[in-house]
């Protein structure tokens, strides 16, 4: 059972274990027509408590790096593959990812961003449906079919990776800069096309 209104899942009981471990469903945040849509893995403790994605340390890194490339959290949309916190922050199981995919695809389809940026291995592999080496493939873009339409998806490392391995900081920043330029280029072309 699931119930979605606009971009939000209001009620869902598809995953028995996650219904137990969550405090609440954590929906995406940010403009409903954002050019950039970031997709993480699943809410952690902070996200579960506050009901918003990326509000802990990873969120701080994301916010800081967005600012470094000239963007603000309020300019972009941020969501997760799975909307309920898994117990002890384990990775979401395959069935949980599959149960939540309809919501993610609906959100991507309705927001219709210029580019989806995957934060970490789980969302990259989930959307691209293959093994992904996120560090070496960071910044690469592939079209993924979302509800019948091609959607550009850019691979990116998880912001938390920069906390454990400082060499990932540059990779993360370069990818966000590329994503920001991607949206500039696309919307620029669109604007020219309007004349
Ligand atoms: N990590 C994620 O993948 N998602 C969040 O919302 C927070 C941390």
TrEMBL record:
Keyword Isomerase tagged: no
Boundaries of every Uracil-DNA glycosylase-like domain copy: 27-181
InterPro entries cross-referenced by the UniProt entry: UDG_Type-4/5, Ura-DNA_glyco_family4, Uracil-DNA_glycosylase-like, Uracil-DNA_glycosylase-like_sf
Keyword DNA repair: yes
EC category: hydrolase
Family: Belongs to the uracil-DNA glycosylase (UDG) superfamily. Type 4 (UDGa) family.
Protein name listed in UniProt: Type-4 uracil-DNA glycosylase
Source species: Haloarcula limicola
């Amino acid at each position: 059972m699931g119930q979605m209104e606009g971009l939000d899942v209001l009620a869902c009981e598809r995953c028995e274990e996650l219904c137990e471990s969550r405090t609440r469903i954590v929906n995406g945040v940010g403009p409903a027509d954002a050019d950039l849509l970031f997709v993480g893995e699943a809410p952690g403790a902070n996200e579960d408590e506050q009901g918003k994605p990326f509000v802990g340390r990873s969120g701080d890194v994301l916010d800081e790096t967005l600012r470094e490339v000239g963007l603000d959290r309020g300019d972009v949309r941020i969501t997760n593959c799975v909307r309920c916190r898994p117990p002890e922050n384990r990775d979401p199981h395959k069935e949980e990812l599959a149960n939540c995919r309809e919501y993610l695809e609906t959100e991507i389809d309705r927001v219709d961003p210029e580019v989806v940026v995957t934060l970490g291995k789980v969302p990259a592999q989930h959307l691209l449906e293959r093994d992904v080496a996120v560090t070496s493939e960071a910044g690469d873009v592939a079209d993924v079919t979302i509800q019948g339409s091609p959607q550009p998806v850019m691979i990116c490392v998880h912001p938390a990776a920069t906390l454990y391995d400082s060499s990932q900081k540059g990779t993360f920043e370069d990818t966000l800069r590329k994503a920001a330029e991607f949206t500039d280029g696309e919307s620029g072309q669109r604007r020219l096309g309007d004349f």
